[in-house]
Write a structure and sequence with these properties.
The chain is built from seven helices and 20 strands. By secondary structure, it is an alpha+beta fold. α3 packs antiparallel against α7 and α5 crosses α6. Bound molecules: FE2/S2 (inorganic) cluster and fe (ii) ion (FE2).
């Protein structure tokens, strides 16, 4: 491992939320197969972008195989219900939003915010007492709609994720999301393991990764890296996000810190000598099916605006193109990993990188077994 240079070392110490150090890395002692581990539902998870949930409309989404309907009444906050009518199990999202309720598209039963049936158009509710549908705690923030898919009684006691730079005027946020056909743990591993720059060689050229260290606790882990260009030119997209990077080691290093704080993941990048990160990424991977072999990735890429007003808007199309291409390569490789797991029926990875071995421990220990 190369030595931390003074400025990078100081920044690491002041920016790390938790500074517990560990030189001892856990071995392969996972009590269960990481790819057969479910994400703990007792957290707040985004399930849609706000702009995709139109006023007076409903949207069908999923969490770990559970169908959820998001409803945005014409007035008031959105709400979330089980996406199955209590009558004949028709998805409610194909129905109609009416006032503060959603009306099933088949016989027109209405369900309110709390999931209670408020009207059966052709019978007296008082005598029939139809069943409710489940309701989920729902909140909207950072341009995303969040639900709490686990035990609703815990929703108020579990911290809502904090993404302060999403509304910081010094940053512009690029929203990147999409379905990826792999278990969510592959995504955490992909971002945490910066040794995969070889995958991005066609876009990035030759980049040497310098691993600086790792810290971890019960439900978190973070790793520090720096980089050096070994060959080729810096791509334009990276230059617009991070600024012009020197070709050779300048003597003071940039610093990247990747952190999984279960169940969320962040990546921050400071250029040498800078006080604020030029890049702040917040990611979360939402399992779609019951086996959790597919996920919907939500990524907020918060980029610090250059000093010249409006310049970032000019650079934006290149930034969008660059991040889309990197994301496409990561998606491709993670889906290949899932295909190998599917063919072999178990996780046979030989993981030797300490940060990833410890990350796997965090993801397994804080997860749950997938129900058969
Ligand atoms: S199936 Fe929903 S009202 Fe009949
Ligand atoms: Fe990547």
């Amino acid at each position: 491992m190369e030595q931390l240079l003074p400025s990078a070392a100081a920044r690491t110490m002041t920016t790390a939320k938790n500074t517990a150090q560990s030189s001892e890395i856990a071995g392969d002692r996972a009590p269960r197969d990481i790819r057969k581990t479910a994400l703990d539902p007792d957290f707040w998870y985004p399930v849609a972008k706000s702009k995709d949930l139109k006023s007076g409309k409903a949207l069908g989404v999923r969490f770990g195989g559970e169908p959820i309907v998001l409803v945005r009444p014409k007035t008031g906050n959105p709400f979330a219900l089980e996406d199955r009518c209590a009558h004949r199990q028709i998805p409610l999202h194909v129905g109609q939003v009416s006032g503060d309720s959603i009306k099933c598209g088949y016989h027109g039963w209405s369900f309110g915010r709390d999931g209670r049936c408020t009207s059966v158009p052709y019978l007296d509710l008082c005598t029939m007492k139809p069943n409710c549908v489940r309701s989920y705690p729902c909140r909207e923030a950072y341009g995303l709609v969040f639900v709490f898919p686990g035990d609703a009684a815990k929703a108020e006691t579990i911290a809502f994720p904090e993404v302060p730079r999403a509304s910081d005027p010094n940053y512009k946020t690029r929203y990147l999301d999409g379905r990826i056909d792999c278990h969510w743990s592959f995504m955490h591993e992909n971002l945490m393991d910066m040794n995969h720059q070889f995958l991005h060689r066609r876009i990035m050229g030759g980049v040497k990764t310098i691993f600086l260290g790792v810290r971890h606790g019960k439900d978190w882990i973070e790793a520090d890296y720096s980089f050096r260009r070994a060959s080729g030119k810096q791509p334009l997209g990276e230059k617009f996000i991070l600024g012009k990077r020197p070709a050779a080691d300048p003597g003071d290093r940039d610093l990247m810190t990747v952190r999984t704080e279960y169940p969320y993941q962040t990546l921050r990048f400071w250029t040498a000598g800078s006080e604020h990160p030029v890049l702040d990424l917040w990611n979360v991977y939402i399992p779609q099916d019951k086996k959790q072999h597919s996920n919907h990735t939500y990524s907020l890429i918060m980029i610090r605006r250059p000093a010249i007003p409006g310049l970032i808007n000019l650079l934006w199309p290149v930034i969008v193109w660059f991040t889309k291409d990197i994301f496409a390569e990561d998606r491709w490789i993670c889906e290949l990993e899932q295909a190998a797991f599917d063919a072999q029926g178990e996780d046979r990875n030989q993981e030797i990188f300490p940060a990833i071995r410890e990350l796997r421990r965090v993801l397994v220990d804080n997860g749950r077994p997938i129900e058969p």
